[in-house]
Amino acid sequence: MYPPSKVLIIGYGEMGHAMEHLLKEKHQLAIHDIRPGQGLPSIKVEQEAAMADFVLLCVPASPLRDVLGKLAPCLQKHSICLSIAKGLDDQGLTPAQVYRQVFNGGQPHCLLYGPMISEEIRAGRYAFAELGCTDTSTYLGVRGLYQGTRLHIRHSTDIAGISWSAILKNVYAIAFGMADELGLGDNMRGFLAVTALAEIGAIVRRMGGNPDAALSLAGLGDLVTTATSPGSHHHELGRKLARGDIQAIRGEGIHTLETVSRYRLFDTAPYPLYGLIHDTVKAPLNVAMSFEDYLIRIREQGDDVKQAAPSSH
After folding, report:
1. Which InterPro entries has this protein been placed in (predicted)?
2. 6-157 belongs to CATH 3.40.50.720
3. Residue 28 forms beta bridges with which residues?
């Protein structure tokens, strides 16, 4: 049995509430959110950080550097920083890369990625995640933190792999929302799942990770959840785009598309489904026609490959 820990939760959105639900019975919590009107008691963040055994960063990727920079001088040497951000910051860096730049190996840190819908966690249902860190002691510490909860954690040292799988699943979930809004059916959903996983695996390899990460909880596990859940933000973004509703089209997946393009983080040409999503978000004029053109192109590419293949006789 692990003793109670002092935990500082930064960010009181959906995941901040979920982490509070998981930990409040066994640990001493302090919670901070930059937004007013969250109903939280006033705390001195630096003071709480100096006493915390764990700092849970339930904020998007963009403000992560500033938050870590503010807290880093206050942290105890044993304090573990855990981020759930599944996106890229404004410089095109993953949360793992931000960690490395801010801490330079001087502070334990990790990433938590997987199917963890906040509403289900708060309803007492199971959740699952990959805990990305390079050392076993950090993994054991976090596992102890969540011991007795319904969050099941696996250890992964493939930081690039699970990072890019988690980042990309938000992008590909948009395609599922578009297809569902267009009424393209279950067959299309199956096709999108296979195609998305193939592209995610290929991009993960290009970005330095193991392509098998696409099949992990951070990849396939979270993709299924995000692409099919009625409450999924990115699934709903796809639906809105298919309806021609371009108001409030925001989210980590949208930011990822913009950031990959701005910094040319990888060549997107080999990934037609990614290209379809990018082009639709950029100009959502006729999503049904865009889907039809996409399917024609990939069918023609398949025919070209078949015609070019040598005869087996």
Report:
1. 6-PGluconate_DH-like_C_sf, 6PGD_dom2, G3P_DH_NAD-dep, G3P_DH_NAD-dep_C, G3P_DH_NAD-dep_N, NAD(P)-bd_dom_sf
2. yes
3. 6
Q: Alpha helices, DSSP H only, in the chain?
A: 14-23, 45-51, 64-71, 95-103, 118-122, 136-145, 159-181, 185-206, 222-228, 233-242, 252-263, 272-282, 287-308
At 268 the three-state DSSP class reads coil
- For residue 34, give the DSSP letter: S
Superfamily of domain 160-302: N-(1-d-carboxylethyl)-l-norvaline Dehydrogenase; domain 2 (1.10.1040.10)
User: pLDDT (tens digit, 9 = 90+) per residue, 141-162?
Assistant: 999 999 999 999 999 999 999 9
Class of residue 82 by CB neighbours under 10 A (exposed 0-12, middle 13-18, buried 19+): buried
Domain boundary assignment for the chain: 6-157, 160-302
Give catalytic residues, as residue numbers.
169
What is the per-residue burial (b if ≥16 Cβ within 10 Å, else e) of 298-310?
A: eeeeeeeeeeeee
Instruction: Please provide the average confidence, as pLDDT, over all residues in the chain.
Output: 93
Phi/psi of residue 127, nearest 5 degrees: -140, 160
Q: Which residues contact 205 (CB under 8 A, 6 or more apart)?
A: 211
pLDDT at 283: 86
Residue 204's pLDDT band, with cuts at 50, 70 and 90, is very high
